[in-house]
Specification:
The structure holds two protein chains of two kinds. In chain A, helix 3 packs parallel to helix 5. Chain A is built from eight helices and six strands; from the N terminus they run αβαβαβααβαβαβα. Chain A has a single domain, classed as Rossmann fold (3-Layer(aba) Sandwich). In chain A, 45% of the residues lie in helices and 18% in strands. Chain B is 38% helix and 19% strand. In chain B, the strands form two sheets. A six-stranded parallel β-sheet of chain B has the order 2-1-3-4-8-7, sandwiched between helices. Chain B has a two-stranded antiparallel ribbon with strand order 5-6. In chain B, helix 1 crosses helix 2. Chain B is globular and about 50 Å long. The mean pLDDT of chain B is 97. The chains are: A alpha/beta, B alpha/beta. The interface between A and B is medium-sized, with 31 and 35 residues.
C-alpha cells in the first residue's frame, strides 16, 4: 500500500485530477485509494482505447487526466494515441503496470512486455521507469511535464516494485 | 432524410452547447453547414466521439452533445456501458443511424441487419434511450437539453447517402484551441 499511496500522491501533486483505470492486480491498491478519494474524479472503464477518448474530453474541460492500465493497454490504444491525443496535443499520463518485467509469474505476459518500450519509442512518448521506490519521487515533475509539452507521457512501474507494495 | 439534411435541421436546436462531432463526413458536413467554435471536429480516432463527449461532460457543467454514427458506436460499443453507468445529466449522445459506413462508401453496417442500438444501449444500462425518425430528432434533442436531471441517448434513424464535400481546412490544434476558448479556458486567440 505504501508504494501505491506514494504514486497517487505524486500524480496529484503533479496536477493529475481525473483518473480512469482498466484493472490489473498490480493496480488494485491504487484503485482502492482512488475509489475513496473525494478530491479527484475516478472511474473504472471497460477498455483503454475508450479511456483515451474520455481523457481527451476531460482535458478539453480543463482536467489533467491519468489512465491506469497494464502495458497491454498500450497495444489496444495506438491509433487513439496518435490520431487523437498527439494530433490535438492533449496531455495524458499513462500510469502503467509493466507486466512481463522481472518477477512476472505469467510467461504469456512476456510478449507485450518485450515490445512495450519499442511501441512507446516509436510513438515518441516520454517514459519514466520506476524500478525502485526512490524513482517514484520523479512522478510529480513528470506529470506536470505532460501538461507543459502537451503530450501523453508514460510512467512504467515494474512488476517487482508493485509486488512489494 | 439523410445525414446532411438532419445536421442542417439540428441547427435550429443547437445553440451554445458543446458538440463533439464524429470523424469523416459528419464533421465535414457540419463544418459546411454552419461552422462554429463550439463544434469540435474529429479528424481521427474513429469510434471515440461518444467517449470524448463523456469525458468533457464529466469535467464541466455545460451541456455536451456527442454526434456519433452507427458504424462508430459499433466500433466502440463498450462506450454504451460506460455511459449507462457514468453519464452525467449534461450529457447527450445523438447517434445518427443511417445503417451505413457513409465516409467509406456507404457499406452497410449491422444496424441494417439484426443489431438494434436501442436495445444494446438499454441493455448496457443507458437511461432515456429514444429511437426516432430524423424529423422527430429536434424535439427529442430539445427535451434532452432542457432536462437538468437526466442524460439521454437518442438514436435518429435516417437514410444513407452523402453530399459532395471537401476535408475540413482547420488543423487539429486550431480546433482544440477555439473550442477551449469557447469554454473559457484559452485567452490567447
Amino acid at each position: 500500500m505504501k508504494i501505491s499511496q506514494k504514486i497517487i500522491k505524486n500524480l496529484k501533486s503533479g496536477g493529475a485530477d481525473f483518473f480512469l483505470s482498466v484493472p490489473c492486480k498490480l493496480l488494485a491498491n491504487m484503485i482502492t485509494i482512488l475509489e475513496n478519494d473525494k478530491e479527484i474524479y475516478y472511474s473504472a472503464i471497460p477498455r483503454e482505447e475508450e479511456g483515451m477518448g474520455i481523457c481527451a474530453g476531460a482535458y478539453l474541460g480543463n482536467k489533467l487526466p491519468c489512465i491506469m492500465m497494464q502495458n497491454t493497454g498500450i497495444g489496444n490504444s495506438v491509433n487513439s494515441i496518435v490520431s487523437l491525443l498527439q494530433l490535438y496535443q492533449i496531455p495524458v499520463v499513462f500510469l502503467i503496470s509493466y507486466r512481463g518485467t522481472p518477477g512476472e509469474p505469467v510467461g504469456a505476459q512476456g510478449g507485450m512486455g518485450s515490445v512495450t518500450e519499442d511501441i512507446l519509442n516509436t510513438l515518441r512518448i516520454p517514459m519514466l521507469h520506476c524500478n525502485i521506490e526512490e524513482d517514484l519521487d520523479k512522478i510529480s515533475t513528470f506529470t506536470n511535464h505532460a501538461k507543459v509539452i502537451e503530450s501523453p507521457v508514460a510512467v512504467l512501474c515494474n512488476f517487482n516494485l508493485m509486488e512489494d507494495d | 432524410m439523410n445525414r446532411f439534411e438532419l445536421l442542417n435541421l439540428l441547427q435550429q436546436t443547437i445553440e451554445n452547447e458543446l458538440v463533439i462531432c464524429n470523424i469523416g463526413l459528419p464533421s465535414q458536413e457540419l463544418y459546411k453547414i454552419n461552422d462554429r467554435p463550439n463544434y469540435f471536429y474529429m479528424l481521427g480516432s474513429m469510434g471515440l466521439a461518444s467517449s470524448i463527449g463523456l469525458g468533457l461532460s464529466l469535467s464541466i457543467d455545460k451541456n455536451v452533445i456527442s454526434i456519433d454514427g452507427d458504424g462508430s458506436v459499433l466500433m466502440n460499443m463498450n462506450t454504451l456501458a460506460t455511459i449507462g453507468n457514468r453519464a452525467p445529466s449534461n450529457y447527450t449522445l445523438l447517434i445518427v443511424d443511417n445503417g451505413s459506413y457513409g465516409s467509406t462508401g456507404d457499406q452497410k453496417t449491422f444496424t441494417n441487419e439484426s443489431t438494434s442500438l436501442k436495445n444494446v444501449a438499454i441493455g448496457a444500462g443507458c437511461k432515456n434511450v429514444i429511437e426516432c425518425s430524423g424529423e422527430e430528432t429536434n424535439e427529442n434533442l430539445q427535451k434532452a437539453l432542457t432536462d437538468k436531471n437526466n442524460s439521454y441517448v437518442i438514436i435518429s434513424k435516417i437514410k444513407s447517402g452523402n453530399v459532395p464535400i471537401k476535408p475540413i481546412p482547420l488543423n487539429a490544434v486550431t480546433i482544440r484551441d477555439r473550442f477551449r476558448k469557447e469554454i473559457g479556458l484559452v485567452s490567447y486567440l
